[in-house]
Amino acid sequence: MTVHHVQPDEATLIDAITRRDELAFVQLVGHYQGPLLRLARVYARSHAVAEEIVQDTWLAVLEGIDRFERRSSFKTWLFRILLNRARTRGEREGRMIPFSAHEDLSNRPQETSVPADRFLGPDHPEWPYHWAVPPKAWAAPPDEQLLTRETLELINVAIAELPPAQREVISLRDVQGWTAEDVCNVLEITETNQRVLLHRARSRVRATLERHFDRR
């Protein structure tokens, strides 16, 4: 089993927190507050609720820092605390992510990311399995469109409507910019599950954007 160690500067901060050094705690809060709040918003119905979840997380850190054994990274430990509190709050608000949402997907039938009727059949004389209805180019360069407030809002809505496990993974990978390894460690899922969930989530968001631009 791989043993993860905290970075030297972070380790120094954690040592200081165990001595109840308030300045060290303020530094850690400043570093992680934004990412924690963004993840909490995956579960919370409002920004205010998300802030309460993060506040509960920091209280749990202060109460449990003496029991942090450093077998995992501090980041993994911290975000698992947040997830536990966010899921508990989400359960009360009807936004629970069930344990089964993270079951092993490696042996399950693949969910179709693109409708089958958009491809030519296997018996096509020239282009079997090729596009019958290929994706259309968007009118403006994609980078320009993705920067518009309207499109960003559309992406946020599309992510919010994803199945819970997919919403978690795409929020961490594409919104927060986490590595696949960090996502697997925090969510306690396999690399295969992470990859499948991310692919399905991205495909759904892409389909939503495609429908939006096709109507223009």
The major beta sheet can be summarized as: none
For the secondary structure, the number of strands is: 0
For CATH, the homologous superfamily of the largest domain is named as: Winged helix-like DNA-binding domain superfamily/Winged helix DNA-binding domain
**The CATH topology of the largest domain is what?**
Arc Repressor Mutant, subunit A
Structural class: mainly alpha
* Helix share, percent: 55-70%
Rg calculated over all Cα atoms: 21 Å
Net shape: elongated
Round the mean pLDDT to the nearest integer and report it: 78
Number of helices: 9
Q: Proportion of β residues?
A: under 5%
- Order of SSEs, N→C? HHHHHHHHH
Low-confidence stretches: 96-101, 103-107
* Domains, number: 2
Give the C-level CATH assignment of the largest domain. Mainly Alpha
CATH architectural category of the largest domain? Orthogonal Bundle
| Terminal-residue CA separation | 52 Å
Question: Would you give an account of this structure?
Answer:
It is a single chain. This protein has nine helices and no strands. Helix 2 packs across helix 3 and helix 3 crosses helix 4. With 216 residues, it is mainly α. The chain has two domains: 85 residues, RNA polymerase sigma factor, region 2, helix turn helix motif (Rna Polymerase Sigma Factor, Chain: A, Orthogonal Bundle), CATH 1.10.1740; 114 residues, Winged helix-like DNA-binding domain superfamily/Winged helix DNA-binding domain (Arc Repressor Mutant, subunit A, Orthogonal Bundle).
